[in-house]
Amino acid sequence: MWWNPNHIFRYTLLRAAIGLSEYRETVIIGEKSPNRSKASFKEIGINEFIQFKTGDTNKYKEEVAEYLNKIKSWNDLFENEFDENFPAEIIYDAITKEESDIALEFNKSRFSLYILRLRAYQKRAREILSDKKIKLLVLSHSVNLNFCSLALEACRQKIPVIVIYGEYGTLRFWKIENPTDIYMGSNFLSRDGISRLTESQLTDLEQKGSTYLNSRISAETVDIGAKRAFARDKGKINRDKIIDHFNWDSSKPIIALYGMSWIDYPHLYGPIPYRNPLEWIFETIEIAKKSKNYNLIIRPHPCENLRGTRGLCSYLPINLPDHIRICETGWSGADIMHSVDGLLTLYGTAGVEYAAHKKPVLSLGKGWYGDVGFTLNAKNRLEYVECLEREWWKGVDFIRNQKIAKIFAGWHFCKPDWKEGYCTGDDFTQLDLYRKIIFNKECNGSKINKEIECIREWWKSSIKGYHNYTMENATKYATN
Q1: What pLDDT, in 10s, does the model give residues 249-303?
Q2: In this structure, are residues 289 and 324 in contact, taking their beta carbons and an 8 Å threshold?
Q3: pTM attached to this predicted model
Q4: Residue 463 to residue 456: CA distance in whole angstroms
Q5: How deeply is 384 buried, as exposed, middle or buried, from its count of CB atoms within 10 A (0-12, 13-18, 19+)?
Q6: Structural domains for the chain
């Protein structure tokens, strides 16, 4: 369990819902903030702890030697399976995140240390979970070497797993029933999911989605990403000002390319067609260099340097062609969106925002909305390159895409109407979350009780994602 006030709060809700306090509860404490984690769980009456540490990793050198002999580059990592099919994507993201460099050059010595650590985590996970009395594993996350080792070992031993995640002020718990469930994909609206909704649900979701997105692009939502993306720090801009600023030909379309946040795991939703988002951006730039029929504006992610990681600009070439330029810091995302003719994104939230405002979007891979239908989605690298080599932004059904995007936004960002006024806060705010928890306890007691009842019923159901469960069973929705 990663320490965060919201994680503790979510666990208390799950605990009350399925009666965990009636069982022997043991907290697996990681290597970061162990004392703070222990203190928090002791406050709710849990006093048994297990340390999840690697210990001496050198003793596993012989076990991983054969695998390490095969790995001489990042490409080798993705082409060779580690023990028990541990995902290469998780290994790659764990290393680049800890080293704070998405373009990290492969170094065999450094890589070997991470693999030894991974082997130690796998061994420790098996040791802990081999107790036949274990009925459930609850995780705050399912990615990174440590959490993923526990999740996959639990799958191997057929131990149920719940990830107590939260996003946009609501609970996004999900069940891990097989290895692919470690990726975050159980709480999104699919194309099949849309077909199962009633006309009344679709109408309300579309309306609420539109309302939420209008608040979002006005920087009026609690999401830290939206606050940063749509802040207007340098005054209002428009298409003419952008063209004048970059001295561009006004007769050419402007296409925006939005960078990814390095603070999260690029493979959070599963494999992507490129090794990392930077590789995707580089190839996009190279293709754009050869095409002179549009101008390209590159916008770094507003949260890319929240934790001190290098920003996108530090990776980009210094001498870009005149028709390819980097967005000025402080320009509002809303102004940019209204000024350009299309968006290139891997799977960014901007894809939803642009499509909902009748802008063509070219996305890549499944991500969390690639197969829903409101973007032109390239299934692989070849399809993506083919799209870039033509005027992909033409011939888009804007009305259809807008409707689907708004419905999707209503599902993703909003909540059942009984949760109106009840929000769990953003995990990024850390200690300030205590104020939100106290407020909810004092002012939203009845809604917390209903949340507990819903968690109980969800746990009995066959639906993997808790948010999906509550949204499917709602008839009306709320934006806040």
Answers
A1: 999 999 999 998 766 789 999 999 999 999 999 999 999 999 889 999 999 988 8
A2: yes
A3: 0.94
A4: 12
A5: buried
A6: 5-53+164-190+415-478 (no CATH), 197-413 (3.40.50.12580)
